[in-house]
Amino acid sequence: MLAVSFISPAQVVEQDPNVAWQKIDKGDMVIDVRTAEEFAAGHINGAINIPFDQIVPQLAKLNLAKDTDVVLYCRSGRRSGMAQNALVKQGYSKTYNAGGLDTLMSSR
């Protein structure tokens, strides 16, 4: 018997720093989903801070098109994954979970 499992796009965990940097370098929107305090302690240049639990209403306030390329990151990739799942459920089609800031910065 062959078991096949399907993973929906909302469950995909990308977190490849090289892909993330390619997207950042080409100008994708970068969102740091950590707390304001974490963001103030250091972040990727050009990133905006929207805590993960506020991502959907804040992007709605920005009137961001749902096909905008968005790169999300946090400390470890967990909160950026949660934010990505919430956005995908709302119809955002071009999100990328870049994972944790330390991993991103050490791959640069």
Automatic annotation (TrEMBL):
Domain named Rhodanese: residues: 24-106
Among SMART domains, the record links this protein to: RHOD
Q: Which domain of life is it from?
A: Bacteria
Could you tell me what this protein is called?
Rhodanese-like domain-containing protein
Source organism per UniProt: Shewanella polaris
